[in-house]
Write a structure and sequence with these properties.
Its EC number is 6.1.1.20. InterPro entries: aa-tRNA-synth_II, aa-tRNA-synth_II/BPL/LPL, Fdx_antiC-bd, Fdx_antiC-bd_sf, Phe-tRNA-synth_IIc_mito, Phenylalanyl-tRNA_Synthase. By secondary structure, the protein is of the alpha+beta class. The protein has 2 domains: 258 residues, Bira Bifunctional Protein, Domain 2 (BirA Bifunctional Protein, domain 2), CATH 3.30.930; 85 residues, Ferrodoxin-fold anticodon-binding domain (Alpha-Beta Plaits, 2-Layer Sandwich), CATH 3.30.70. Helix content is 29%, strand content 29%. The protein contains 12 helices and 16 strands. The protein has a 7-stranded mixed sheet. The longest helix is centred in the middle third of the chain and has 21 residues. Bound molecules: phenylalanine (PHE). Phenylalanine binds next to strand 11 and strand 12.
Length: 378
């Protein structure tokens, strides 16, 4: 576990400031221990290598234009994370089921978009923000409650679009697509690409960029033309801007052939020694794959049951030994009681697990699921 006083983006934070026994706090120790690790700032780590590879694209094509931030504090206000980027009051992402709340007004950022308005207000017009982001979620090989994003924002003024003969929104959208297609080619080579219409509260129009890679269409990023309202509240009314956000793990997993998202957190030399600064896309050679062990568990759920809560209890006990939690059976009986059966896959990325160890974990899981979630085991 990380030391109990952290320095995050120049701000000192004690463990008690973040993890508390308080009904408006849902941050567990397992998440606190990830604060400050900043995998994206390690130049020998696949996430740092990818960040630097994206920087290289912007530095080459837009010399000295984009200001880079990779050390902004992940503890932000509800206003920064949601209100400033126009996330509606009833949007699911605001719920305690989806977001980690430090208290009712403070969260662990769930996206790097939390910094858009603040940086615009500080006068920045071209910037990249890389950071760790936090989301409550279910467990499988591509989802982990902490991951990393990079945000990009570019603001244009009337002299930019007036000469083009386009309206400001079309001008920004065209520039956005051109810039991001170039980025995708820089990372993936000559791939086929397509633009999909999307929805984000902070952009309009909004798009997702997909590339055809290894036989299927894969989402690379979300983006769009920034809502005027954000520019307005940030003191930049007479301008138009684009923004994008991309998940570093998703891209690094395909670029480096990394099969499980937990590996990014591994300190095993057999993982860490395979990557070095500037070596983009060197393929990871898996060390032998240890066998998984499956345990099933069935219980009657109650009205407040959610899969995210279940996964957090399980992760709190077995940490990175959990590979996947999947719902394998679900039925409602004549009395209206609903039963769920979950299959838990235990597997270490680094060693074989013993039967004894897994049985002990599973026993604790059963006990805590029953006690903390108030479900009835079957
Ligand atoms: N914040 C969005 C997400 O996390 C990504 C995004 C950023 C989309 C900027 C559009 C513009 O999914």
């Amino acid at each position: 576990v990380a030391s109990s006083v952290l320095e995050l983006g120049g701000i000192k934070i004690a463990k008690d400031d973040v993890v508390r026994d308080d009904p408006t706090n849902n941050v567990p120790d397992t998440i606190f221990s990830k604060l400050g690790l900043q995998l994206h700032r390690r130049n020998n780590h696949p996430l740092g290598i990818l960040k630097n590879g994206i920087y290289e694209y912007f530095d080459t094509n837009f010399p000295n234009m984009f200001h880079k931030f990779d050390d902004l504090c992940p503890v932000v206000s509800v206003k920064q994370n949601f209100d400033d980027v126009l996330v509606p009051a009833d949007h699911v992402s605001r719920s305690y089921n989806d977001t980690y709340y430090v208290d009712s007004q403070t969260v662990l950022r769930c996206h790097t978009s939390a910094h858009q308005a603040e940086l615009l207000r500080r006068g920045h017009t071209h910037f990249l923000v890389t950071g760790d982001v936090y989301r409550r979620d279910s467990i499988d090989s591509t989802h982990y409650p902490v991951f990393h994003q990079m945000e990009g924002v570019r603001v244009f003024t009337p002299d930019n679009w007036e000469a083009s003969g386009l309206d400001p929104t079309s001008y920004a959208a065209e520039d956005l697509k051109k810039s991001l297609e170039g980025l995708a080619r820089h990372l993936f080579g000559a791939v086929e690409m397509r633009w999909i219409d999307a929805y984000f509260p902070f952009t309009n129009p909004s798009y997702e960029l997909e590339i055809y890679f290894q036989g299927k269409w894969m989402e690379v990023l979300g983006c769009g033309v920034m809502e005027q309202e954000i520019l307005k509240i940030s003191g930049r009314s007479n301008s138009v801007a684009w923004a994008f956000g991309l998940g570093l793990e998703r891209l690094a997993m395909v670029l480096f052939d990394i099969p499980d998202i937990r590996l990014f957190w591994s300190t095993d030399e057999r993982f860490t020694s395979q990557f070095s600064e500037g070596q983009m896309g060197v393929k990871f050679k898996p060390f032998s794959k240890y066998p998984p062990c499956y345990k099933d568990m069935s219980f009657w759920i109650n009205d407040s049951f959610t899969e995210n809560n279940l996964c957090e209890v399980i992760r709190g006990i077995a940490g990175d030994l959990i590979e996947e939690v999947s719902l394998i059976d679900n039925f409602t009986n004549k009395k209206g009681m609903t039963s769920h059966c979950y299959r838990i896959a235990y597997r270490s990325m680094e060693r074989s697990l013993t039967d004894e160890e897994i049985n002990d974990l599973q026993w604790q899981v059963r006990e805590q699921v029953q006690n903390k979630l108030n479900v009835v085991l079957r």
